Fold these 4 entries.
Entry 1:
Amino acid sequence: MAPQREWLERDFYKDLGVASDASSEEIQKAYRKLAAELHPDRNPGNTEAEERFKRVSEAKSVLSDPEKKKEYDETRAMFAGGRFRGGGNGFPGGFPGGGGTTYTTTTGADFNIGDLFGGGGGGESGGFGDIFDGLFNRGGRSQQTSRPRRGKDLETETTLTFRDAAVGTTVPLRVTSPSPCTSCHGSGAKPGTSPRVCPSCNGSGYVSRNQGAFGFSEPCQDCQGTGSRIDDPCTDCDGSGVKVRARTINVRIPPGVEDGQRIRLAGQGEAGRRGAPSGDLYVVVHVKADRVFTRNGQDLKVVLPVSISELVLGATVSVPTLDGSVGVKIPAGTTDGRTLRVRGRGVPKRAGGAGDLLVTVKVAVPPKLDDAAREAMRAYAQAERSSGFDPRADWGR
């Protein structure tokens, strides 16, 4: 993915208020704090807060993606403070001479301009060549970047109960983001009219010029690189085709989703300008703890309180599941802490079927006994000793 040109003018770390070596957790924490403060729902009519909200969202989308963050850091480092110079002509304002010209970096290292663009005459791409694909005309590929760009990906969060996350559910999410204008349907043109092909660039979005041995392509100033002109802009969106609005999306949460999992909703992110495709919306799911159940993958785990007599004599006990209850047989002589498995009564699987229910028995000791129960326990203890049973026979050896 070629880096976006505006990266050279944006400091995403400053937008989020974090250091350049901030961890992913620090970036997420800073974003959530700022997003809560700047959200349009909390600042109705505040255009400054709305603009900062968009900048913060964009910064987070880049810095939270390891590949994008690496590319952004490398691009910023390469261009920071005018780090390329040579022949009295600043980079990238212009290059004297041909592809064999050697330039010097501010660190004193030399590089050949042919190597910078990849291949050095060998015809192979490489080095930093991909970075300049969107700026310089290399085999016509730059025309691809002139079209209206896809909207940015967005991220939101939702919190579910343990049981809803396990069996799946549908939740409504309120999202405030740039969306296609409902008046012009994203075209940017006044209803009843349409954009026309820009005559200056013939719809390519770029105009070309030659300087020395190089051919440069730069965004067309008449259409701002879009390839089209709008003579009568839509008054609702000022010709952008996009308008910030609140909308409700019903999101289907599949069964078995786990805490922290991201669900992708294709095309539900920020709208692309002038009819370009929308980005995606990612929903981060948080799952509340349950007082009865826990999980181990697709297996459902439960701790079952039992009496001493149920373990000694055996019993069938009713155990809760996600869809009712099931009778679990405790064999006579079961030890405290043993786990019993009930097949197919765990968390549903997307491909069909379900995991297992794991029932761990735990002795519950009565805090108080009446006289009859106390006498019965004494009699049992005496019978236990008479039978030769010693619970600590092998202990400590």
Entry 2:
Amino acid sequence: MYMIEAVIRPEKLDDVKEALDEAGYPGMTVIHVKGRGRQRGIVHRYRDEEYRTDLLDKILLKVAVPTEDDVEKVIDVICEHAKTGRPGDGMIFVIPLEDAVRARTGERGDDALSTEE
């Protein structure tokens, strides 16, 4: 099992969410965060003055999947739908999961990640 954590632009959330749902991955956690990458924020100009915003609004999207094949599919979907081609499109991290438990039923492992009722 794996946890995929993707940091994406807030304006791309709906596109990514709908695409993941259509691809068969409806379960996700969405967290509003602030952060920066290599671009170290952005520079604004106002009345000939410059100021830097170094922490930008981002979305942290978490998706748990049972197999490596699912990891690749989810990564492909996120990359395709989160991409603008400009700096700041985000990052995707893949983390091994030791276990998962569905609180309602007590199901564990891959059964807890199943989308079937």
Entry 3:
Amino acid sequence: MTQFAVDRLVLTPDDIDLSRSPLAGHLDAETYVLGAFNPALTRLPNGNLLMMVRIAEALREPIREGNVHAIRWDGDGGGRFVLDPWPLQFANTADPRKFELTGYGWKVMALTSLSWLLPVELSPDGLTRIAIHYDKAIAPQGSYQCYGVEDARISLVNGKYLMTTCSVSPERHSTTLYTSNEALDWHFEGIVLDHQNKDMLIFEGLIGDRYWAQTRPLGALFFAYPPGSPWHAGPSINHATSPDALHWKPHIEPAIRPHAGTAATARIGGGTPPILTEVAGKRGWLTLWHGVEPKEIVGIYRTYWSLLDPQQPWKVLATSHPPLLEASPELTVPLEDQMYVRDVVFTTGIVEEADHFIVASGEADLACRITHIPKDAFVPTPE
């Protein structure tokens, strides 16, 4: 694994004050921070950096009195958070993050935690915490996100901040959009993708007069590529375009697909919003994305990169089969008693400096990691 000189955890569960959580005072049960992770990253107007951190707030004892419990925002109850009990005999609780309910004839999940978003202000280099803005937290506000708001990504386009989030509910598993002029006070714009799509990332700039975004629709069925193809079937990173960032149309050309020669791309998805820059002697849209190698329940998550054509972003100018970033067990040694998954780095934000990129990732679904990656570390695999 490539070692980077600046690579550290900047926020862990121990740094979060749950007495200031949106859930505080709502539940007759003890909660704890399962993870403070998967941070969006952007530059504030004052020059500092902002992480929008996913806080997964979990029940200390989800299983009691023969039931496993889920946290839910209840609009009918006056906008409160409540607990739903599910009989334990109908639930598979092997995964500590969620449980599967049996007897439906298809896959149905519920969560032992509920996620909300917390703005954390950092110094310009991303290495020192300046402030945690609990008063600016984003929590569920409708039935379409009653099980949480997850995995924000922030793009700055024409002076306006655009933040995509994943909203979770029994109604749908949708992508929701928030906008802001200064990245601290956010306005909810609504649902922009009405299907299960975990990784919608808006390009940091227009192409022509259109907004572009990476998407990653999921499904239970994928059709095979022909024998000998360089690709293999599975989720892929697609593109969509929009005149206004609200109404999106899928682009017809395929984009980044799982490569048959790389085990860790058995499942892929977007990581950082594409930024227009120059690496490996070429100018294009740099995008960092994750690839997953199957292992146990979660798998091994690694970060890869691709450089996309400036005008035709479905064309890949350069990429690398070896990973750019991998999970770092050394970083999480002080958090060993809180670990519940391993081998996971999930990169979610990037800011460009003169000779390096400041990259934000979720480490082990537990903490926020900042890595300074030199521009000369982007070495493409020969075609």
Entry 4:
Amino acid sequence: MSISEKYNLSPNDIDRIVEMAWEDRTPFEAIEAQFGLKEQEVIELMRSEMKKSSWKHWRKRMNNRKTKHLQKRIEQMGRFRCSRQKAISHNKIT
């Protein structure tokens, strides 16, 4: 069973998860809060949705990136909000 089937994700949900995963300052915890996918499940989804070369590039970028994990962030950094976030429909966080 794929991640999208397990969590009953629509194509729009998958697109949004991929977009959030590519954003440097969106932590995995935000994806989990909105869609229920843990970091490992996001990695599996990205692997299944992307070309192999794109997935390798993404993994290289995300490896040890402090901004992708709330616990590794500097406290003064605060919460990042994308300028387009208000325009996104069905966003459960805003």
